[in-house]
Amino acid sequence: MGKIPQKKNIVVIGGGFAGVRAALDLDRRVSSQYRIILVDRNSYHAPYSMLYEAVSAYISGDHKADFAAVRAAIAVPFHLIIRNTNISFIKGTFEGIDFVDQRVKVDGFRIPYEYALLGLGSTTNYFSVTGLRDTSFPLKSLDDAQNLRNAIEELFARKNHDEQIHIVVGGAGFTGVEVASELPALLSNLSRKYKRARKTVTLTLVEAAGTILPGAKPGLLHVAEKRLTRLGVVLQCGSAVRSLEGGRLMLSSNVSIPADLVAWTAGISVPAVTEKIPDVPREKGYLVTDEFLRFSAHPEVYAIGDLVYCMDKRNQCSVAATAQRALAHGECAAENIYRTTQNLPLLEYEPRSPAFVVPLGGKYATADLWGFRLSGILPWILKLLIEYSYLLSILPVLDATKKWMYGVSVYIKIDYKA
Predict the structure, then answer these.
(1) Model confidence at 160, in pLDDT bands (50, 70, 90)?
(2) Are 259 and 164 spatial neighbours (Cβ–Cβ below 8 Å)?
(3) How far apart are CA 73 and CA 362, in angstroms?
(4) What is the mean pLDDT of the segment spanning 44-65?
(5) How far is the C-alpha of 164 from the C-alpha of 258, rounded, in Å?
(6) Please, which pLDDT band fits residue 416 given cuts at 50, 70 and 90?
(7) Residue 256 pLDDT > 50, yes or no?
(8) Nearest in space to 251 (alpha carbons), one of 241, 264, 263
(9) Closest CA to 353 of 387, 308, 314
(10) What is the largest CA-CA distance in the chain?
(11) Per the confidence metrics, is the pTM higher than 0.90?
(12) 366 burial via Cβ count (<10 Å: 0-12, 13-18, 19+)
């Protein structure tokens, strides 16, 4: 009897939107020929589009149980995602890649690959602002979200009732606006819990551009501004942050803002570990691929998600790093690996015009669906349905439904009836 040929590896580094989508698509298309290996430093997939829920969660009863409930509502364990697939999961940290020997380095081990996909995500960009890295709170992970939420409550517990509390959200892109819209609920609840007047707590949203949601269409922008103002958020646009020192945020306009706590959501950059990826062109720090999302010098290796510098070919401007873009990257890379194995023409990645649904506190959201705009509770419901649709795309129907229903029950419980 002949020896059974050993399968070669396709290694997907990073279990974010792009990595999970790529791994599942590859399992469906090529797992009969290749072993699919998914690597991530966590044991769970945490959609960053839902992190604002963890930031704004009001914990009223058993702290341990309530925090666990919020975490469980957002995190999706990888073992559920890969159940009933041929995907192998490795919990570990990416340390580099050897293009010559075709090995990825994970926690000191060298994993051979026939194809590799790098979906390492992004890290917070502090723009070299003095004091920001050491004293502000980033929002790139579930741990970040819960650390920020805990730090806010610690302020209430530590400060005297007659002392002012000044909270600042830096960056008024989609993440910053979502967080700033949700925080008033938490601040009102904590004010009642710690028996202080709500007016002693200020929340300011700072943006270097002239408006919040830079690049958004005027209709979406107007609704968001109106909603934030109604919620009591102070908008400070048109000035970049220059320093954070001594509890004050200094802006380029020479305006000084008191800041007991700064949540920083103003930008992203590639992780430092990407410096260990040799012989790859870069643009503004991001990795540059060909039109098929491959490294030109190493076409067996793909880069997907936030790592990649993408240009809109029509407008010649960079494309925002969104969940929709990451999912499209994962789909395109998986499809191209399949096409390579079948000697078919490759699929060129082309950025799509995204649809936006922006939660704005409580059961209220605004949406721009390819030019059709809607605000109120219906977009909020649409946001929940989009989350359900996403869960259905990565989990079996029963698991997705149970996960979604549990999440909705938790979000409603912690929500603010604005």
Answers:
(1) very high
(2) no
(3) 17
(4) 81
(5) 10
(6) very low
(7) yes
(8) 241
(9) 314
(10) 84
(11) yes
(12) buried
